[in-house]
Amino acid sequence: MGNILIIGACGQIGTELTKKLRETYGRDKVIASDVRKGDAAFVAAGPFEVVNALDFNQVQDVIEKYNVDEVYLMAALLSATAEKNPAFAWDLNMNSLFHVLNLAKAGKIKKIFWPSSIAVFGPTTPKQNTPQYTVMEPSTVYGISKQSGERWCEYYHNLYGVDVRSIRYPGLISWSTPPGGGTTDYAVDIYHKALSDGKYTCFLSEETRLPMMYMDDAIRATVEIMQAKPEGVKIRSSYNLSAMDFTPKEIAEVIGKHIPGFTIDYAPDFRQKIADSWPQSINDDNARKDWGWQHEFDLEKMTADMLEHLAP
Ligand code: NAD
Question: CATH number, domain at 105?
Fold first, then answer.
């Protein structure tokens, strides 16, 4: 096996993914890269390169320099940030993917992981237990870019035999790295504010139910789909993936069991409209059947783990 390159390694997922892949395959087999330099400890923890995912030559050079044959493309503009700069979001989210797909088509790399999102669904999608195959009319630029990306992944697989694998992540919750501008970021912030202030003002309304997942589960799913035998990965657009779903009111109630007196109030902003266009819960039967996906964390278990790690 050649080496692994992570593009966008300094982000919420990339940081954890880099750690996990180094534990699994060895420190020097995993090259972390990002358009910005990570903090000193991250850069010192293994090979690190500054790479702009939009620069085809830079990506190709680092692949050749390190004899890379697997790429995890985590660079993107997330849902809330993308709405503020739609043209740039489209450019970054699409062209970074084309560069990597074209490098695989040219035989320079063997395998790609590219994350999609529940944002591929839209207001006309069935909201509960959203199936793998259903109406998909995303209304955000982020969702449009992810849905287009899925189509291109499947196209490159079918026409050129590119081994690309993908998951539609729900909102991801983690304690070690801050989230990067998504609509589900409240579910991370709430733990920090619960511990520091004993109260939280949520940018979504109390009954806004969204699909969520703890980072440990998301990282394990990512590693597992990449380790699956190619014939086990039957869907080459992107897999639905699910662990839990909850509302701001429900997460606040569970936090309140650990931090008595914790209070929440609500001041919905522009992100409410994005959240309202997304599913409330996801059906992931295909991932469970095809490559054995099983989640470990529900809301109670995640809350205990988050508070244990974040407690001063
Ligand atoms: P993030 O914003 O925390 O991290 C993205 C990283 O990409 C950042 O470190 C950023 O510096 C880097 N980056 C930006 N532009 C770049 C460029 N031109 N070249 C190289 N690096 C660049 O995002 P994340 O939460 O880690 O998400 C990673 C992927 O997972 C994205 O594709 C995102 O859409 C997807 N995803 C995330 C979530 C979530 O809840 N975090 C949910 C669904 C899908």
Answer: 3.40.50.720
